[in-house]
Amino acid sequence: MNWDDDTDTAPGPAAAPLTADGRIVGASADGEDQAVEAALRPKSLGEFVGQERVREQLDLVLTAARARGATADHVLLSGAPGLGKTTLSMIIAAEMQAPIRITSGPAIQHAGDLAAILSSLHEGEVLFLDEIHRMSRPAEEMLYMAMEDFRVDVIVGKGPGATAIPLELPPFTLVGATTRAGLLPPPLRDRFGFTAHMEFYDPAELERVIHRSAQLLDLEIETAGAAEIAGRSRGTPRIANRLLRRVRDYAQVKADGVITREVAGAALRVYEVDDRGLDRLDRAVLQALLKLFGGGPVGLSTLAVAVGEERETVEEVAEPFLVREGLLARTPRGRVATPAAWAHLGLTPPQQTPGQAPGQLGRPGLFGV
């Protein structure tokens, strides 16, 4: 049911202009995608699929706040991209019947940027701060006081003549989202009244997400077709919805519009998504590691050059999923392919050399870390 989320602006495009005959003109693909994303987002905790423990805990927090007539405690949501952090922030605002302001950590590089946002908040408003760990340190320090005392000190002037002017803020709820909770300083993390870590979804939950999205998109999908898409969605609702839209395109063009297991499988082969959810980049990394470097260990920079990608792309996009699937291991000496990786690509691993650690199938240390 969810979510292409973690966006920095509220979903939903402006209405496109109409010609005299009623045709829409000037509507971009991005605008269409935003409209679809907005339509697929759950609007309440009851509609939100998965994350049962987080939903139960959050429901208690919000229900108690409404009963007291108070603003909800600050909320920190952590977890991988695409699990619904932005969606939950919007649900928090809806449940509290409050407006929401959306921004991101990288957009706040100076304390003044944060002061401008905070000073314009209304009482009870929800401020969603995505990628909060990427906020600048001066803004972070200002946020401490704002969260705890609902006050900020604005510095006017420079040098010995500088003056701190206290600015009172109305009570508000900060919802912070991060993919790297370990990068948050403890003083900031401790000021959140409720913290939640969002887990990857199992295939059964993703099937429910896909069935709900298909219903909203007015698609006919069989249970086996939904299961086929769910099994290749990497435990992430955002990916499940993206794959569903691509399978929809294939079904409309190449089939009769009905998404069956066969149609879903054929569509995902066209888009180079295999039966475990690996895409082109994932397979390129594994093939380079196995065929060029004998299974490793090999350094990340060398591996990135071999697949023609930036080091950060391999490390942040491909590696987390490959490690989670047990296809790749990170070691102090470099990246190493596991026996499951050889089996997945249908290759035979080389013989292990004497004195070599188990699981290190290449020539030890040849390519560095």
TrEMBL record:
Coiled coil: none annotated. InterPro entries: AAA+_ATPase, AAA_lid_4, DNA_helicase_Holl-junc_RuvB, P-loop_NTPase, RuvB-like_N, RuvB_wg_C, WH-like_DNA-bd_sf, WH_DNA-bd_sf. GO terms for cellular component: cytoplasm; Holliday junction resolvase complex. Pfam families: AAA_lid_4, RuvB_N, WHD_RuvB. Residues 202-272 are annotated as: Small ATPAse domain (RuvB-S). The keyword DNA-binding applies. Gene3D superfamilies: 1.10.8.60, P-loop containing nucleotide triphosphate hydrolases, Winged helix-like DNA-binding domain superfamily/Winged helix DNA-binding domain. ATP binds at residues 40-41, 82, 85-87, 148-150, 191, 201, 238. Residues 71-202 form the AAA+ ATPase domain. It is an enzyme of class 3 (hydrolase). DNA binds at residues 311, 330, 335. The keyword Hydrolase applies. Residues 9-21, 347-361 have a biased composition (Low complexity). Its EC number is 3.6.4.-. Residues 1-21, 347-369 are annotated as: Disordered. Residues 275-369 are annotated as: Head domain (RuvB-H). Mg(2+) binds at residue 86. It catalyses: ATP + H2O = ADP + phosphate + H(+). The RuvA-RuvB-RuvC complex processes Holliday junction (HJ) DNA during genetic recombination and DNA repair, while the RuvA-RuvB complex plays an important role in the rescue of blocked DNA replication forks via replication fork reversal (RFR). RuvA specifically binds to HJ cruciform DNA, conferring on it an open structure. The RuvB hexamer acts as an ATP-dependent pump, pulling dsDNA into and through the RuvAB complex. RuvB forms 2 homohexamers on either side of HJ DNA bound by 1 or 2 RuvA tetramers; 4 subunits per hexamer contact DNA at a time. Belongs to the RuvB family. This is Holliday junction branch migration complex subunit RuvB. It comes from Streptomyces inusitatus.
